[in-house]
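step: validate -> pass
step: tokenize input -> pass
step: predict -> running
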Amino acid sequence: MPNPGFLLAMLGLVVLFTLIQIGALQIAFEKLGLAPESGMTLLFVSLMGSLVNVPLFRMQAEEPDQPVPEPIRRILAHRQQPFEGVTTVAVNLGGCLLPVTFAAYLVLNAGAPLGNHLLAVALVSTVAYVASRPIPGLGIGMPILVAPLAAAGFGLLIDPEHSAALAYVGGTIGVLIGADLLRLKDVRKLGSPVASIGGAGTFDGIFVTGIIAVLLA
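step: predict -> pass
step: emit ->
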């Protein structure tokens, strides 16, 4: 039977190429100062990298306080190893490391002052932390449009001239900090064998957050 993560990645690829046909991603990449070829390379590498999780450390964990909902239990039965009291914390290549690297590139080259980037990140981090919630057996969840709307809005308010770069940096780094790093304390109570910072083998919300935020900015 094909790996579910691979099937989800292929589905994500189909959806993304559909978006490409209507020009949405080209607009986002142009706002960020990327040539179409560079944008496509970033897109493809991020998608393929979302299948790779790099383990960082392991921690003793507990069974969730609330039972895992039946639909999630069925999904996990096909995707994860049984929970044995230990959670491996990993970082996702396509959903975390690559977006963070590109965000760093924008901070250095987009032209906005460093203080504006830091302010955007701090504001989106706060929103992401408040809006995110631990989901037993699965991870940290957050409505997908909350962070992009916040990142785009703050980018326009802080520096309209560089709003696209601020939206991407604020959206990606803000979600990473607010919904992942600041929520590590909740990982022990999720009852999940793996907690992946930036994703878990699917096309991750951090990358999508950045692209949507840029389109809205």
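step: describe -> The two ends are 42 Å apart (CA to CA).
step: cleanup -> pass
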